[in-house]
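User: Before I run my own analysis I want an independent prediction to cross-check against. Here's the chain; please return only the structure tokens and, at the end, one sentence I can use as a sanity check.
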Amino acid sequence: MSLSDRLADARKRLDTTDPTRDPTAGRPGAPRVRRRSFDPFAEVKKAVHQSLLETLGPQLYDARMTQTELESRVRSALTGAVRAESAPLTPSDRKRIAEEIADDILGYGPIQPLLRDPDITEVMVNGPNQVYVERAGRIYPADVAFVDEAHLRRTIDKIVARIGRRIDESSPMCDARLQDGSRVNAIIPPLALDGSMLTIRKFAIDPFDADDLIGFGTMTKPVADFLAACVQGRMNILVSGGTGAGKTTTLNVLSSWVPDDERIITIEDAAELQLHQEHVLRLEARPPNIERRGEVTIRDLVRNALRMRPDRIVVGEVRDAAALDMLQAMNTGHDGSICTIHANSPRDALARVETMVLMAGMELPVRAIREQMTSAFDLIVHQTRFKDGSRHITQITEVQGIEGETITLQDLFRFDQALGVDSEGRTLGQLKATGMRPRFLEKLTWRGVRVDPGLFQYERFMG
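Assistant: Structure tokens:
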């Protein structure tokens, strides 16, 4: 059968599946995967790809060439290679083949269109044949796939190589980031049993501001006014919540309220914060190299930041013994610092901080640690991701003091879920004031920040 006949036959079978695409078929306990539709242009793309490599050769790896020049040459050569192909192709087929090959050479293959889609916030590759995306907080299957495991591995290698990292059997896990700042995690066999896995949390080019979060229902206008006053009044704030709850987005909004005349140092595992103040110094942790050397932790950066004359320290996430140094910073004149932590509730957040301080290896009595936390934190902002994909601030809690061995907390705002959900499963709850006023209002007044007492007026809960 000629290539023309195969193409014609393949177009009739676009909706059929190719069982050979599933490398885990028949494996005991293997998950069911969505199989990839048969690609009718596989042979044509392979021929064009090979022709392109022969035409450009070493130019693809010329370090002196800018990305714009490389893209221009690749697309020019690609257009010629597709036109030279003898197979009968429609204009739309030629365009599709050219785009897919360009994505493979210049970008990240089949997932490149997903990374360009502004509505997609996360891309999850569960092996070569199964790709999911997150839109508006919900997960959906994507109609793309890699050719095979080798194709997926080449894409992962391209991602990690661009930041000087490497992933192989001796080091089968890797955290990296794309050039635009998107956060990447990759894990390969033998740790990944059903094929290499890749997770990309996309970097927001245009970050959300307070008005956006109010529009999404994450917070209300009174809450935004109160949090802005707390930031401007140099209260120390801990943002807590589960994975994907929107902590970093909220941290970015809180940080945007820091006055322009202050020196801000941000410390992150992967740089995500986008502050628009002029005097911002950004620090990023570094993992160990292949020889297990050269690691620079969040704790190292917090210690170093204290020597850089900061007005504010903003830590993307506290997850280890850096908690001790963060407490020391907050208790030694660096008021107005902000950090995030993974936790299920405000009280759990304090328990996690306590545990991480103990990880520092210092033989400190628990009471001393709790007194340090009480002095350090003024406010805990807890955020939750709901089943419908929406993200809401569910508690704003004041850290009041310590009685005996227990830290006393007081909810200033709490999310009322008594209204349940609508017919489409969306939550109808709202963040409401509990009627309690924070004790630090007087401290805010001393610092020239006035808070409207009406913000704390009791709102009746439905439950």
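Sanity check: The CA atoms of residues 374 and 401 lie 6 Å apart.
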